[in-house]
Amino acid sequence: MIQQGDCAPDIEVYSSTGELVSSSRYAAQVPYTVVFFKVTCPTCQLALPFLQRVESPERLLIVSQDPPEPTAQFAAKFNAPLVYHFDRAADNYPASNAYGISYVPSIFRIAADGRVAAIVEGFDKSFFESLGIEFAPHENVPAFKPG
Which residues contact 43 (CB under 8 A, 6 or more apart)? Predict the structure, then answer.
């Protein structure tokens, strides 16, 4: 797997319409986050809805290792209406291989210089909280809100 500090690979994944999309499109929205997942992964079912709450959608490159139909069912079932892209099994998962992932979810935070700033495999609450902190100055997010 690529390591923190490495240059993020430029990957190409398919949109839901079949268009080939390059990660360089997201480089203009730095920092951005690349997320690899599978619909059958229980940890992914927790991580993706949480991630959508703390990260700006235009800064998320969500890559499903499943076809569009089960991915759409996942999005509906787990209330994660994100923009999904697809790393196809028929192509031997080129995007996943470029990052060298072994587990899902695998999440990579890409910094302004194009290097991997942070990596998390699985669900790490402190990682997600750090993403939320980055957006606090731009959004009306209270430091504390009692229940």
Answer: 104, 105, 122, 123
Asked if the structure places residue 142 within a domain, the reply is no
Residue-range definition of the domain harbouring residue 32: 12-122
Residue-wise pLDDT tens digits, 16-63: 889 999 999 888 777 899 999 999 999 999 889 888 887 788 889 999
Rounded to 10 deg, the angle between the 42-54 and 125-135 helix axes is 20
Whole-model pTM? 0.87
Q: Is residue 86 within 8 Å of 77, Cβ to Cβ? A: no
Closest C-alpha to 61, from 83, 45, 78: 83
Residue positions counted in the chain: 147
